[in-house]
Amino acid sequence: MDGDTLYSIGELAQRTGLTVKTIRFYSDRGIVAPTDRTPAGYRLYGIDAVARLDLVRTLRELGLDLSTIRKVVDRELSLPEVAAAHAEALVVQIRVLRLRHAVLAAVAARGSTSEEMELMHRLARLSEDERRLLVGEFLDAVFGGLVAAAPAFAGVMRSMTPELPDNPDPEQVQAWVELAELSMDPDFRASVRQLAEEQVAEQVRSGATAGPRRDIAAVVRDQVGPALAAGIDPASSQADPFVAAFTADYAYLFGRPDDIALRRRLTARLERVNDPRRERYLQLLAVVNGWPAPESLAPALDWSVQALRVRAP
After folding, report:
1. What is the distance between the alpha carbons of residues 242 and 306, in angstroms, rounded to a whole number?
2. When you count CB atoms within 10 A of the terminal residue's CB, does the N or C end of the chain come out lower?
């Protein structure tokens, strides 16, 4: 009967397609033990060795280590348990490989130096907890203590929070790295903190506790939009009504007359809002989070600042 047949290691190699060296390796480690030996001491294997070797080859191709494979073939572990654990491990490996692919693709597109590539890889491979810590440090530096004064401002914090997905594309990786670098810049943090404090002060002054008051930059954008569309020179008299509209709003907020002092204060405020780094942060944030690209405030702010400087030198 075939079940009683014993095979030499060479014959077993022919039946399984494995090399003699490989079978000897598994045999030496007790994964596929010989059934008997010839008088000369050569190993002989039963038909069950063929099935065990087929299983071992399959599990090795799936990436299992020899220790786990031995427990499976010896039935110390059930195959479904091992398969479930290995499937979970493969999910992690796939995520890592996708991240590496995204980093390499971003480096290729960006033309990075070896130092930049190392930084990109280091920042991109941060765990989710590490990324949250980095983001949390930035948000705390910018918004710490302000939400207590203006609770509705918590929404602004959420809108500034990046969330890198598990399987980012190269563009998202590159955006995340640039955003992380930007968020660690102390000067940028101080700039955004000042803007946040000014906005909270405006919220508190206007008594907007039920919901956030529209930021003055958004007000300016809406009010000077028609002037931009019409191509009106900010230094011309045609710009006067547009300037008067948004300066009146600012004067009302602070309960002060619309005079040169107030317009100078507003000019400084809009110049700070018009920091290119702030706009870049918002652009990168949209890429990382998969949001639509934000509308640029720069044209409206540039126009408004020029118009104010002419009228409040």
Report:
1. 13
2. N
280, burial (CB in 10 Å: exposed 0-12, middle 13-18, buried 19+): middle
What is the amino acid identity at position 234? P
Phi, psi of 294 (to 5 degrees): -75, 150
Rounded distance, CA 296 to CA 212, Å? 21
Within 144-185, where are the H helices? 146-149, 154-159, 170-183
Residues 6 or more apart in contact with residue 64 via CB below 8 angstroms: 72, 82, 86
**Rg, C-alpha atoms of the chain:** 33
CA–CA gap between residue 1 and residue 31 (Å, rounded): 25
Beta bridge partners of 171: none
Contact 281, 287 (CB under 8 A): no
- DSSP for 14-69 reads HHH---HHHHHHHHHTTSS--SEE-TT--EEE-HHHHHHHHHHHHHHHTT--HHHH
Written as tens digits, the pLDDT of the chain (313 aa) is 455 788 899 999 998 888 999 999 988 988 888 888 998 888 999 888 888 888 888 888 877 788 888 888 888 767 687 677 667 767 767 776 776 777 677 667 767 677 777 767 777 777 777 788 889 999 999 999 888 877 877 888 888 999 888 778 878 888 888 898 899 999 999 999 999 998 888 777 766 444 456 788 889 999 999 999 999 999 999 999 999 999 998 998 888 899 999 999 999 999 999 999 999 999 999 999 999 999 999 999 999 999 999 999 8
Residue with tokens 């110390």: 76
CB neighbours of residue 171 within 10 Å: 14
